[in-house]
Q: What sequence folds into this?
């Protein structure tokens, strides 16, 4: 239907702004006009078609269940009438696109709309669009890559129509939510859309450099629909006329774009001028605009950047950060419970803050991609892996590597991942390839292929290479581009298989040189069972990089390893002028390996004993940890908690009550104490002893409310006092609180609400829990609450601040 | 429309929001400086306003009618610091809750500063006399009005400002407001406690004070 190789398609121009000119009230919904005044809509489409549009967008931009809520019409009938009104204007040639705009609400984690809910809303639109006879789907004016993903999946899973996507960018080259052109290109090419584009926000002059970039980054057809220039901030009128617009659009032909039209402020006249101008220089046959540029005929001067080959580079991305694998790229290995007792315990206890802290630590250390593995026996990874992925992508923009062998868990995680991920891993086993590669293809991920198969890990490099080739061939046959296949030639331990260490290196070099693929390797296994492991690890890492390792999977907190990579990049002249190296190590003392601006000296070196009370009150985290370490040499963990940490916190709390210590200082003290508690929890987990819990408390910001900073303050303070907190998060449904209370036999619930409108939810939550668990007690807090009102809605304690919550909890648990 | 990013955050306001009496000590000052640098780096202030006749949009509540008394038109404005600030605060809640509290309060001060500057710009660009800003949730102007205002200014498309089903604005550090426009000098009108939806729950009122500082 759409044949981009033959033809440059003209799209239509503005619909909403045209309707406003015909008297639509600002702020009113244009979508209902398809029902109330279909002739008007048809006449606008007809004007565009007469001006030369090959494709018209039906009047469905805002037709979704959220924007049309309470409008008095069914969504299905609104869409149906819009598609039919467009069709009525068409001759046989013109195509009708179902126009799908943003839902109007931001998705999690920025907003509150769940990805799955967005998908459902889009699916409803897509199904009806196809049923009403649309020829294609255009998802447009998008600012959030996550919302785009929900829409694309909804379109592809529920219809057979071609899917085109355009997003809207600021001059900075990013959308309002921070998505860059690189991220859009990488993620959407992966998801298998039929064309990508840019529309709205800016005029043709401002979009041109962005379009150039997009064309250089994608092999997909590109389409552009700019506004009629920039709007006057006062009147909203756009500043470019049809003639000027068309001339500006002519510049795009050199880029080899496939479709052009206009967005806000453009009218049929703009399309007509474009058509005239595009046709004038070129031969026009049968009134169709020939695609004017054949890349083969281009002179060197006008050669589009597309031919430069950057679309051939491997790019992994989150919604806002793209990582091009053109240098040694560190994959952080810390979120993998294998051999890590504390992480394992955290996953079992659903203590996701600990998991997130591991993510943040690696971000700070310089990881560029994070591996995510939740493989603990008895944990349902199909449920937990996507949840952890969602949580991690809410607090870091690093791209993720989904690490699992369970196809269902991989699919669930890839589905909710916002960007283009890596899947770790497949291997040479036919069955594994057959089940996992289709998932990788569907969600547009890259994939790690391990050079082993049902017979195990071959000893010889040649045999591992043969498996790599088999994996590559299979992937390519399924439509996965070569650039997205990464090979792991597998590290064996030098202590057990010394002769085969060089086979790994040799296989990697073969894969790199003969297949041209990127390589991945978990490095630190090499030294298992040998003394002085760091020395072996960093030496092997250097050897591996020299033999073609692109993506080492390491602990980025290990400065020995990171330093080796920085030195390697510098010595290979990829870190130009040693900039990155000097930035990281410029201040390092001679012979030492500490990063510039790294943490303060340990206590031992300062030569004096640090008083825990002093360190904690001053909010000195490192010093507090050292003080706790020193105490742990003399007394046991529980004594440190009960005789030192809590009394020190009490002292701070009393200062807060008296007004000599303020909230920021109290929080700094709490954060310092947290460091001490972490150390104690680590030690308890390592020795398999139970935790320090003084009682279990569930806390939540109530349904409808997303103000959670107050609740999180309470959480930190209460945890410091040894209470075990189940944090249900924000916007928590009543049923979820009830469920948690029953399941975990909770005796105390903390609820927070910051709006008058959500106090109702607080009341309902208390009532529902009381009914199900009459013994449960409640502490409540939030700016709009008063002691009287708290009593009125059935709470047991009104807590004006975090210290009051601790007091209440001590009373409830009889401490 | 892109708005200018202030080059510093008002210390006085910031300390008030943090509940700190008097000056910041050296340690807190260090934290404020570091938070200020991050906030100013992440803030991408955007604003949009539209002038419309009073009859073009129905606003509920008595107080807003008094606020707009004597005005023929109103300016509806929206301003936001953008999503990067929300991301920063979200991340810092995992990293360091103390820093998160400081960032959160700092961002609230910053959006007010952005609004003050934007309001000055609106006054310069508008002929006639303007009242002060009046926002949903204040007095008896229901929070649901948020949806109405954001639709009128085409918030999502123009400045990336959306509202969720609980009428909370996202990005979080955002403001919408209505300013009356008159050809005579107008003072606007601040809601009284009797009109206020918070009257039964207001802590200030219990202490015999009110939010207008009267």
A:
């Amino acid at each position: 239907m759409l044949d981009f190789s033959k033809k440059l398609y003209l799209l239509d121009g503005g619909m909403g702004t045209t309707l406003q000119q015909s008297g639509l009230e600002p702020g009113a919904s244009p979508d209902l006009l398809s029902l109330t005044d279909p002739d008007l809509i048809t006449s606008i489409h007809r004007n565009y078609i007469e001006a030369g549009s090959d494709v018209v967008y039906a009047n469905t931009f805002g037709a979704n269940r959220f924007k049309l809520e309470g409008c008095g019409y069914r969504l299905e009938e609104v869409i149906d009438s819009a598609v039919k009104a467009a069709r009525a204007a068409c001759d046989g040639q013109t195509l009708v696109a179902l126009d799908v705009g943003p839902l109007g609400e931001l998705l999690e984690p920025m907003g509150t709309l769940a990805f799955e809910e967005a998908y459902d809303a889009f699916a409803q639109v897509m199904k009806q669009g196809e049923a009403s006879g649309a020829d294609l789907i255009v998802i447009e004016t998008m600012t959030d890559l996550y919302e785009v993903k929900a829409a694309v999946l909804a379109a592809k899973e529920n219809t057979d129509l071609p899917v085109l996507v355009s997003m809207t960018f600021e001059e900075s080259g990013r959308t309002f939510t921070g998505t860059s052109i690189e991220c859009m290109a990488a993620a959407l090419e992966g998801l298998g859309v039929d064309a990508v584009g840019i529309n709205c926000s800016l005029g043709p002059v401002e979009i041109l450099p962005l379009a150039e970039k997009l064309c250089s980054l994608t092999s997909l057809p590109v389409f552009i629909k700019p506004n009629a220039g920039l709007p006057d901030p006062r009147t909203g009128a756009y500043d470019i006329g049809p003639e000027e617009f068309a001339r500006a659009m002519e510049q795009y032909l050199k880029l080899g774009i496939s479709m052009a039209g206009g967005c806000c402020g453009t009218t049929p006249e703009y399309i007509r001028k474009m058509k005239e101008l595009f046709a004038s220089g070129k031969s026009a046959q049968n009134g169709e605009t020939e695609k004017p540029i054949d890349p083969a005929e281009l002179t060197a001067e006008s050669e589009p950047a597309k031919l430069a080959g950057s679309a051939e580079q491997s790019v992994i991305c989150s919604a806002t950060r793209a990582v091009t694998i053109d240098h040694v790229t560190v994959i952080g290995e810390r979120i993998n419970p294998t051999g890590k007792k504390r992480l394992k315990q955290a996953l079992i206890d659903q203590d996701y803050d600990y998991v997130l802290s591991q993510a943040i630590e690696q971000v700070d250390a310089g990881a560029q991609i994070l591996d995510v593995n939740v493989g603990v026996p008895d944990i349902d990874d199909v449920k937990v892996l996507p949840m952890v992925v969602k949580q991690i992508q809410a607090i870091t923009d690093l791209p993720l590597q989904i690490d699992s062998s369970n196809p269902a868990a991989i699919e669930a995680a890839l589905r909710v991942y916002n960007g283009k991920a890596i899947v770790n891993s497949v291997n040479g086993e036919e069955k594994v390839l057959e089940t996992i590669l289709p998932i990788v293809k569907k969600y547009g991920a890259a994939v790690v292929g391990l050079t082993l198969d049902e017979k195990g890990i071959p000893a010889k490099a040649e045999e591992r290479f043969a498996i790599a080739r088999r994996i590559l061939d299979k992937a390519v046959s399924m439509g996965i581009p070569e650039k997205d296949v990464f090979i792991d030639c597998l590290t064996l331990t030098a202590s057990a298989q010394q002769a085969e260490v060089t086979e790994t290196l040799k296989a990697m070099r073969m894969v790199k040189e003969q297949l041209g693929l990127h390589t991945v390797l978990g490095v630190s296994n090499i030294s298992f069972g040998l003394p002085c492991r760091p020395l072996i690890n960093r030496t092997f890492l250097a050897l591996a990089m020299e033999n073609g390792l692109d993506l080492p999977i390491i602990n980025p907190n290990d400065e020995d390893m990171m330093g080796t990579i920085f030195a390697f990049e510098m010595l290979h002249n990829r870190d130009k002028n040693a900039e990155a190296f000097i930035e990281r190590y410029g201040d390092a003392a001679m012979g030492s390996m500490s990063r510039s601006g790294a943490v303060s000296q340990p206590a031992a070196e300062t030569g004096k004993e640090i008083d825990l009370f002093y360190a904690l009150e001053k909010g000195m985290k490192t010093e507090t940890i050292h003080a706790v370490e020193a105490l742990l040499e003399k007394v046991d963990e529980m004594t440190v908690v009960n005789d030192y940490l809590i009394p020190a916190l009490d002292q701070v709390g009393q200062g807060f009550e008296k007004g000599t210590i303020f909230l920021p200082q109290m929080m700094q003290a709490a954060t310092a104490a947290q460091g001490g508690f972490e150390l104690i929890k680590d030690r308890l987990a390592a020795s398999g002893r139970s935790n320090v819990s003084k009682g279990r408390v569930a806390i939540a910001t109530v349904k409808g409310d997303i103000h959670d900073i107050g609740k999180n303050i309470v959480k930190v303070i209460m945890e410091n006092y040894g209470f075990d907190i189940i944090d249900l998060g924000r916007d928590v449904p009543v049923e979820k609180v009830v469920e948690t209370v029953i399941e975990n036999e909770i005796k105390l619930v903390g609820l927070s609400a910051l709006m008058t409108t959500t106090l109702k939810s607080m009341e309902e939550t208390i009532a529902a829990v009381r009914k199900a668990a009459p013994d449960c007690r409640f502490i409540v807090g939030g700016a709009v609450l008063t002691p009287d009102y708290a009593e009125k809605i059935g709470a047991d304690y009104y807590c004006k601040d975090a210290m009051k919550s601790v007091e209440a909890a001590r009373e409830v648990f009889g401490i | 429309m892109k708005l200018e990013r202030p080059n510093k955050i008002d210390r006085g306001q910031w300390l008030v929001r943090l509940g700190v009496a008097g000056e910041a000590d050296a340690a807190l000052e260090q934290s404020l400086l570091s938070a200020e640098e991050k906030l100013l780096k992440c803030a991408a202030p955007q604003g949009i306003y539209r002038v419309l006749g009073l009859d073009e949009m129905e606003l509920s509540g008595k107080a807003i009618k008094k606020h707009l008394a004597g005005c023929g038109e109103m300016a509806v404005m929206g301003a936001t610091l953008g999503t990067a600030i929300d991301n920063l605060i979200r991340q810092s809640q995992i990293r360091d809750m103390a820093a998160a509290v400081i960032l959160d309060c700092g961002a609230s001060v910053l959006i007010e500063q952005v609004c003050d500057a934007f309001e000055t710009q609106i006054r310069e660009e508008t002929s006639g006399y303007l009242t002060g800003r009046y926002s949903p949730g204040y007095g008896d102007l229901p929070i649901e009005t948020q949806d109405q205002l954001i639709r009128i200014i085409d918030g999502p498309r123009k400045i990336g400002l959306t509202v969720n089903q609980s009428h909370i604005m996202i990005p979080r550090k955002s403001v919408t407001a209505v300013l009356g426009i008159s050809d005579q000098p107008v003072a606007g009108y601040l809601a009284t406690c009797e009109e206020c939806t918070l009257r039964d729950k207001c802590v200030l009122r219990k202490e015999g004070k009110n939010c207008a500082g009267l």
Remarks:
- Confidence is low (pLDDT under 50) at residues 283-309, 599-607 of chain A.
- Chain A has four domains: 9-311, 313-557, 603-686, 696-812.
- Residues 663-686 of chain A form the longest helix (24 residues).
